[in-house]
Amino acid sequence: MRYRLLGRTGLRVSELFFGAMSFYERGGPDALREYRAMLDAYADAGGNVIDTASAYGESEEVVGELLAGRRDRFVVATKYTLSRDRTDPNAAGNHRKNLVLSLEDSLRRLRTDYIDLYWVHIWDRHTPVEETMRALDDAVRAGKILYVGMSDAPAWLVSRADTLAEWRGWTRFAGVQVPYSLLSRDVERELLPMAEALGMSVAVWGALAGGVLSGKFTGPGGTPEEGARRAGATRVDPGSLTSRDHAVAHAVQEVARELGATAAQVAIAWTRTRQAAVHPIVGARDLAQLVENLGAADVVLPGEAVRRLEAAAEFELGFPGDFIAEYEAHTQALGEAASGERDGRRAAAR
């Protein structure tokens, strides 16, 4: 597996991240053996980033146990924001109190003195972003976290927070975490361009759209599995799949057959075709599924295959992306010089 730098830092991270959300319940000895085998397979493939969260049940505790004796070889990423106690109004949110207490809980559960990458789990509309960024920077200066990132937030907020940190000498975001798949391409409108412009890595969840793109519901004999979810949020009802869902899933399967890969591998590989800084988070229910998903690192999609996949997705950028592109297409809008620069960028990209 290849490595890239995390955002504007010097930290080397593998091209695929491991999502430990599936370690939600500790289970008995058999479950722990399966979890260990999965983590070992990921490490043997060259992976070094483990992504979890304080809200993922017992995941942090399981990860802490599995990393005993080898913790420093991994980049451990976890998140805070979601409620620790639903009866306490201050046990959730991005404010300083919840950050401090959540961080201490995560350090204890993960059996470590520091978190490599600490994500803000989701935008909290009630907490000033200045408070969040200063509190994160204080934790960095205290040595309890090394790098920070933002998950599931609008581009304007992330860019504003990052700029505030730059101006005030605080720790800037190294990355963002977003949902991204052939069936969910909204981040192409603002978040991906923002991340590229600001030099942030992009951790991607939901690349298989809850199993829809793996062929679980559209392949021969495909039947829904207990607990299957769409985009990591809601259960997939096979009867609710649209013609667009089926068209994209079948396009993925067709490309997979041509390349000698699996549909899951093609779907994961596609998320990396837009930007080199995109890192899919691969999770799995068992070892066999994880090994299959890790194979996406070796799948290279030809340009023609990418075009076919995207043609099936029926996606439009909308305003202002399409509007600006249309303006750029006319030399009289921005002048001949601008047209030449645009053509030069396209040639360089090819």
From TrEMBL:
GO CC terms of this entry: cytosol
Keywords of the record: Oxidoreductase
Domain of life from the UniProt record: Bacteria
NADP-dependent oxidoreductase domain sequence ranges: 16-313
Residue ranges of the region described as Disordered: 219-239
Oxidoreductase among keywords: yes
GO MF entries: oxidoreductase activity
Official protein name in the record: Aldo/keto reductase
Gene source species: Planomonospora sphaerica
